[in-house]
Amino acid sequence: MFDLGWTELLVIGIVALIVVGPKDLPVLFRSVGRFVGKAKGMAREFSTAMNQAADQAGVKDVTDTFRSATDGLNKVTNPVKAATDAVKETAKSVTDLNLDPESETGKLAAQRAEDAHKIQEATAKKAQERLDAEAKAAEEAAAEAKARADAARKATQTTDSAEDSKA
Questions:
Q1: d(C-alpha 67, C-alpha 148), whole Å
Q2: Buried b / exposed e across 46-82, counting CB within 10 Å, b at 16+?
Q3: Taking the domains of the chain in order of start, what are their residue ranges?
Q4: What biological processes does GO assign it (predicted)?
Q5: Cβ proximity of 80 and 127 under 8 Å
Q6: Among 22, 62, 130, 154, which is disulfide-ready with 145 (CB 3.0 to 4.6 Å)?
Q7: Taking the complete model, does pTM exceed 0.85, yes or no?
């Protein structure tokens, strides 16, 4: 928190001993300890309240939705990569064989390469559709979470204003 080393603490202690005096020094340290304890308690309470508000607002749901979208993205990109690799291998094998495009084998190899290309395009199209659907779901989840956060904020403000009016 404060970047104080042992030498700085020793200097502060000596100055406090000189300024306050040895008789009142334990009382000062006790007061400082109570103050620090209260400050830590208030910070802990604030942190707990913020975590509860975030949970009520649905932040955890949005986080889970984004994680699932990311996982889905990873699953989608792997088949696209596999299809791309298959097309590259087929094209390479056709060129490596130096087949005559007019021969039966050349026509068959060309047809297979074309089929592999069509499969790659279909896979990429499906992957894009999945990504679009997941992005739309993530946007809807984010909008819902924002609405929950706004509702939680309004509820908190209502509670705070009710407490203020009591005081």
A1: 19
A2: eeeeeeeebebbbbeebeebeeebeebeeebeeebee
A3: 65-143
A4: protein transport by the Tat complex
A5: yes
A6: 62
A7: no
